[in-house]
Structure to design on (1200 residues):
């Protein structure tokens, strides 16, 4: 049969045709443009409109940015240069103000010879965050830096004797010691109470005296800087970082409280969270600037930056609580049941099973909360603190720069954009990584 | 013996408050309650003693004193001789106005941008990504200030409309004037108006409600109801006979005719803005502060809503789209009938919190001089009377009530959407 | 990152914190710094320069008081305050002295429990319009759009003025001078109203100042002066007489140039001698040393020198002395005698 078949078929191709290049309209830029830009008449219209829009925006912005004056000490000088060079003063930026004031916009009134301190603090912050944010790639030994950072950072920024943060640290050590020693002798509850009371007594009554005694023996101190000298982006970052750092533990407790079965505790937590989330940050800042001193015992008087940090921390804590609650809710129920079946008590299961997982899921949410808080720090300019926006007003009040407008905003916007964009990219990549983990 | 395995009816010991799980939760709660009460007491006590030391006392009497300042943007009548309470009320209405306008526009923009970000057009998708990243990563306060600056710098001032060869002219047959002080658009006037109903007599919360508006709304809703009845009837007919009667001309008539009759009865005509003296007069005036705030807040929030919408759409599995195309639905119908209804359930909860954020961010209105409640009660009133405690507490209370009401309404809606799920 | 950040910060801030209830002058001396409230930035009156040092006319008053009390004109902490926060900052003891172009009014003095120690600038609210509008009086402004800086007495004066003259207007409240300036220049408002000094400073920064006119009407009295808390009269006296010393120094011709010479030995003008402490014991009565006024004057010069350096006719702001001239020159500056 095969013979007849072979005879009846006249032609069989026994080699594969060489591949032809695809038609010119389907490859290269043209093909790509056809597929992605002009696939239908509607898409073509959209593309043309988009191109026109891009051209319009760039034709306005690019000459303004690049045909500009860098070397000028005042706005009027800028205008003279512009008139001499281009004949008019419109459509040209005067970057002289940024050249003169960029350091001030970054550091506020921090003494210039001490700029290394906030820079080191920022660098250490990155080192301290690395083991948390990139847990797989960074050796976990660096967690020591993370643990020490809360004590080092205030010392670097505010300066003063090194013994003050050391004494605060010693308080924690004492508390832990009291707990371990007493837990074997008088039971865990008494040990916990002692572990809380001992450091409080230490901080309130003893640490000051010990610190000054040690300081007189070994005066290790940095030049102290008042918080009023903080400003610019340093202030925004400080408020953001401290608020997020402090709000994390508060937020965890609030979230646990909100999910607990204890009615009164839950009511208190829900009340706090909903109250803070229900009012705008600006009203909380009004409280910080006008009312907090009235709420405190007569005679206490701590400075405005600290008051703002406290209010922003409370604000961030409410949002953090919701983020962590989301993380807790996202954990499969089996995890809770597994912990229960192992016979762990509430705190053990939280500490060993629930929280490590819930916090890991919450990191993207925490990062976006941080971005939000960082952006919201611009509101402190409304109550008179010199953050970048507040400083821009102060700079305009200098007779030399009175009347300058866009350049300062552009600089501030670009800096905010860089920082926030970087963080949001990180949180996105993390989300992606976490998603593959769980699917 | 079963009785031996029962727990002994032991007497109550104090340590059981801590070690017995039956009592421990109670103990913790009572301790927490006492702690919270003590904390509150501490704050109140401090406040009272501090106020005593300053020689002040908590007194809301300032609210009934004349405010003394003018407010440009007002939805109900107000004069500088009115009380501080009235000024706060005007501010509250302005806050609500910007919140409603902003939420509406942010939703529309956000949905459009979110969908366009998934567009097959590469350029459009990129532009929308740039838009979202730009707005999300720069503080809203900057955007508000920038929006105002752009409006002021790029639009013509009323002065430019004057003279023989004006630099700017009105648009749409001289009916709309776009200036850097705001937009003047034609207003609806009624020569045989039904008048107003006045509420709350002479008090600070008085306001007028236009009967014309009520009548228009009544007719509009009546027509819509009738159209829906008509649709149902047509549907029933189609089910019964297999033929759908043509109804579009009835629909049109039901929608248009009653409205036209009402408008004729009311003597409807348009009032056009015209240049008089320093400014345009006549017409409806939308101030630049309102527009700038509205634009900035809604564009900022739209960036977040776009991400929520995009996430919601992506959360619907691809099989749904494919199944819809297999049924022969066009892409637009797939979106409208299959994807969006399912995506809504994912979208609504975060959307609520964006609405709340927008409402709270509207408190930055003072940056462009829009007199919302932070600008009146928390701004000029607080400055002029020096009553910080009272003003800030009232301000927080007002925002709290607004936020909680939005949450309540939206959660109710969310529950309704959820019920559709099976 | 734990709660210790706050604790650590508290420990540090504890150094700065102090009880506000004690006598202010003792607090200031113990602290070694004067906490002085200024604006967040107002051209000519207070603004930080590129090095972060505050400069301006109000700043000069703060420095003079610091020099008188502490002997060092740089021993001042400047606390920027807004219209909202300034009074709370003073009432709560966060600042010792508020030198923030604050108008002396009855209710601030009596109801808000403050004590104005004098007037360092006599101002009044005025109007500025573009010349091309052809307006020559504020009464012709019917229907105009008026930019106002909020947070001051300005909006009250404006409402009263237009109501009294029965003309309509459209108020545009604006938070900062920079934005007001921008709106006015772009024609978003026809008129800009604020204190006359602020108008002059704003006008001076325009590309073409001659295209704008300040209308002749001054619709309010704005005596701007430093203030302290009610009840601490010793501290109030120090602030009041430091300001008076600056004004009197100009009247008697004591300048930062000749003060060393005048204070070296008693001159034959006993008033000068008493101010400079070479005669009498005025400083001791204030609870300070004999050379307090000398240091205050040396800090930035006498009133006239401060004025010329910060806001006078040779600065970009270019304010004339006007009401702020000495009474001998037809102005309102008139100090009680130093005896």
């Amino acid at each position: 049969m095969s013979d007849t078949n072979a005879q009846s078929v006249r032609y069989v191709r026994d080699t594969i045709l060489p591949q032809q290049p695809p038609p010119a309209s389907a490859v290269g830029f043209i093909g790509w443009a056809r597929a992605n830009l002009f696939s239908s008449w509607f898409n073509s219209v959209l593309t043309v409109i988009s191109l026109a829009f891009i051209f319009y925006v760039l034709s306005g912005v690019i000459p303004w940015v690049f045909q500009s004056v860098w070397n000028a000490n005042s706005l009027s000088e800028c205008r003279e240069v512009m008139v001499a060079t281009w004949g008019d003063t419109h459509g040209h930026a005067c970057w002289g103000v940024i050249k003169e004031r960029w350091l001030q916009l970054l550091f506020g009134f921090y003494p210039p010879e001490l700029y290394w301190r906030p820079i080191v603090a920022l660098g250490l912050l990155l080192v301290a965050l690395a083991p948390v944010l990139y847990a797989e790639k960074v050796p976990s030994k660096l967690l020591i830096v993370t643990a020490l950072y809360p004590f080092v950072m205030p010392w670097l920024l505010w300066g003063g004797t090194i013994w003050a943060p050391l004494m605060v640290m010693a308080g924690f050590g004492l508390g832990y010691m009291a707990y371990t020693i007493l837990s074997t002798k008088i039971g865990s509850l008494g040990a916990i109470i002692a572990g809380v009371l001992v450091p409080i007594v230490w901080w309130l009554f003893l640490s000051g005296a010990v610190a000054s005694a040690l300081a007189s023996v070994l005066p290790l101190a940095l030049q102290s800087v008042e918080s009023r000298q903080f400003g610019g982006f340093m202030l925004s970052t400080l408020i953001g970082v401290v608020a997020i750092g402090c709000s994390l533990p508060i937020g965890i407790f609030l979230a646990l409280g909100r999910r607990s079965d204890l009615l009164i505790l839950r009511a208190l937590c829900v009340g706090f969270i909903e109250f803070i989330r229900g009012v705008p940050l600006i009203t909380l800042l009004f409280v910080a600037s006008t009312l907090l001193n009235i709420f405190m015992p007569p005679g206490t008087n701590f400075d405005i930056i600290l008051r703002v940090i406290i209010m922003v921390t409370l604000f961030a804590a409410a949002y953090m609580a919701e983020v962590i609650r989301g993380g807790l809710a996202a954990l499969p129920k089996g995890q809770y049941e597994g912990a229960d079946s192992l016979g762990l008590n509430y705190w053990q299961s939280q500490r060993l099973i629930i929280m490590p997982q819930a916090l890991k899921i919450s990191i993207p949410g925490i990062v976006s909360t941080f971005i939000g808080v960082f952006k919201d720090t611009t509101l402190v300019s409304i109550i008179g603190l010199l953050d970048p926006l507040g400083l821009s007003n102060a700079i305009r009040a200098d007779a030399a720069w009175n009347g300058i407008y866009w350049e300062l905003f552009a600089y501030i916007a670009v800096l905010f954009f860089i920082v926030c964009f970087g963080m949001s990219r990180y949180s996105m990549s993390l989300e992606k990584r976490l998603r593959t983990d769980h699917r | 013996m079963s009785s031996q395995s029962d727990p002994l009816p032991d007497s109550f010991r104090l340590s059981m408050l801590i070690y017995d799980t039956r009592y421990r939760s109670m103990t913790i709660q009572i301790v927490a309650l006492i702690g919270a009460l003590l904390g509150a007491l501490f704050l109140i006590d401090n406040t009272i003693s501090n106020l005593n030391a300053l020689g002040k006392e908590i007194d809301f009497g300032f609210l009934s004193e004349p405010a003394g300042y003018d407010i440009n943007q007002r939805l109900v009548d107000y004069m500088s001789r009115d009380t501080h309470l009235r000024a706060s009320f005007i501010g509250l209405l302005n806050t609500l106005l910007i919140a409603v306008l902003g939420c509406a526009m942010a939703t529309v923009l956000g949905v459009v941008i979110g969908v366009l970000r998934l567009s097959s057009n590469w350029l459009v998708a990129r532009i929308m990504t740039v838009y979202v990243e730009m707005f999300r990563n720069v503080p809203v306060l900057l955007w508000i200030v920038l929006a105002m600056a752009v409006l002021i710098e790029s639009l013509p001032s009323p002065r430019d409309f004057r003279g023989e060869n004006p630099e700017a002219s009105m648009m749409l047959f001289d009916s709309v004037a776009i200036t850097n002080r705001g937009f003047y658009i034609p207003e609806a006037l009624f020569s045989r108006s039904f008048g107003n109903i006045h509420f709350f007599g002479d008090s600070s919360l008085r306001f007028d409600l236009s009967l014309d508006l009520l009548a228009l709304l009544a007719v509009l809703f009546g027509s819509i109801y009738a159209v829906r009845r008509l649709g149902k009837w047509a549907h029933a007919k189609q089910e019964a006979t297999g033929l759908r009667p043509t109804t579009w001309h009835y629909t049109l008539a039901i929608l248009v005719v009653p409205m036209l009759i009402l408008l004729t009865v009311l003597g409807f005509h348009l009032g056009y803005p015209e240049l008089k003296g320093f400014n345009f007069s006549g017409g409806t005036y939308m101030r630049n502060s309102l527009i700038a705030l509205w634009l900035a807040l809604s564009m900022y929030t739209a960036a977040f809503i776009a991400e929520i919408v995009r996430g919601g759409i992506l959360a619907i599995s691809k099989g749904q789209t494919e199944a819809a195309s297999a049924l022969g639905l066009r892409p637009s119908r797939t979106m409208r009938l299959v994807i969006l209804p399912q995506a809504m359930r994912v979208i609504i909860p975060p959307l609520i919190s964006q609405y709340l954020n927008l409402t709270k961010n509207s408190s930055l209105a003072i940056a462009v001089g829009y007199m919302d409640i932070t600008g009146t009660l928390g701004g000029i009133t607080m400055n002029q009377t020096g009553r910080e405690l009272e003003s800030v507490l009232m301000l927080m209370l007002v925002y709290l009530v607004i936020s909680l009401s939005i949450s309540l309404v939206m959660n109710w809606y969310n529950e309704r959407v959820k019920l559709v799920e099976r | 990152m734990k709660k210790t950040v706050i604790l650590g910060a508290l420990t540090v801030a504890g150094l700065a914190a102090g009880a506000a209830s004690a006598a202010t002058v003792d607090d200031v001396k113990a602290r070694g710094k004067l906490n002085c409230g200024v604006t967040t930035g107002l051209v000519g009156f207070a603004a930080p320069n590129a090095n972060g040092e505050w400069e301006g006319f109000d700043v000069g008053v703060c420095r003079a008081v610091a020099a008188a009390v502490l002997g060092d004109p740089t021993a001042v902490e400047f606390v920027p305050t807004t219209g909202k926060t300034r009074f709370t900052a003073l009432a709560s003891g966060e600042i010792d002295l508020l030198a923030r172009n604050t108008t002396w009014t009855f209710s601030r003095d009596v109801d808000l429990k403050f004590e104005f120690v004098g007037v360092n600038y006599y101002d009044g609210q005025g109007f500025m319009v573009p010349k091309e509008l052809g307006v020559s009086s504020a009464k012709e402004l019917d229907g105009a759009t008026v930019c106002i800086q909020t947070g001051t007495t300005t909006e009250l004066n404006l409402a009263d003025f237009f109501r009294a003259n029965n003309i309509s207007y459209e108020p545009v409240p604006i938070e900062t001078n920079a934005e007001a300036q921008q709106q006015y220049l772009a024609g978003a408002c026809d008129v800009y109203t604020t204190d006359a000094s602020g108008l002059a400073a704003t006008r001076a920064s325009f590309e073409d100042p001659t295209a704008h006119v300040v209308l002749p009407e001054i619709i309010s009295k704005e005596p701007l002066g430093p203030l302290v808390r009610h009840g601490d009269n010793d501290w109030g006296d120090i602030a009041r007489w430091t300001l008076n010393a600056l004004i009197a120094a100009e009247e008697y011709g004591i300048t930062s140039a000749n003060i060393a010479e005048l204070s070296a030995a008693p001159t034959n003008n006993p008033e000068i001698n008493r101010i400079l402490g070479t005669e009498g014991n005025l400083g001791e009565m204030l609870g300070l040393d004999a050379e307090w006024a000398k240091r205050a004057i040396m800090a930035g010069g006498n009133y006239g020198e401060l004025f010329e350096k910060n806001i006078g006719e040779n600065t970009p702001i270019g304010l004339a002395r006007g009401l702020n001239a000495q009474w001998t020159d037809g102005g309102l500056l008139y100090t009680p005698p130093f005896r």
User: Anything to note?
Assistant: The first strand of chain B starts at residue 177 and ends at 179.
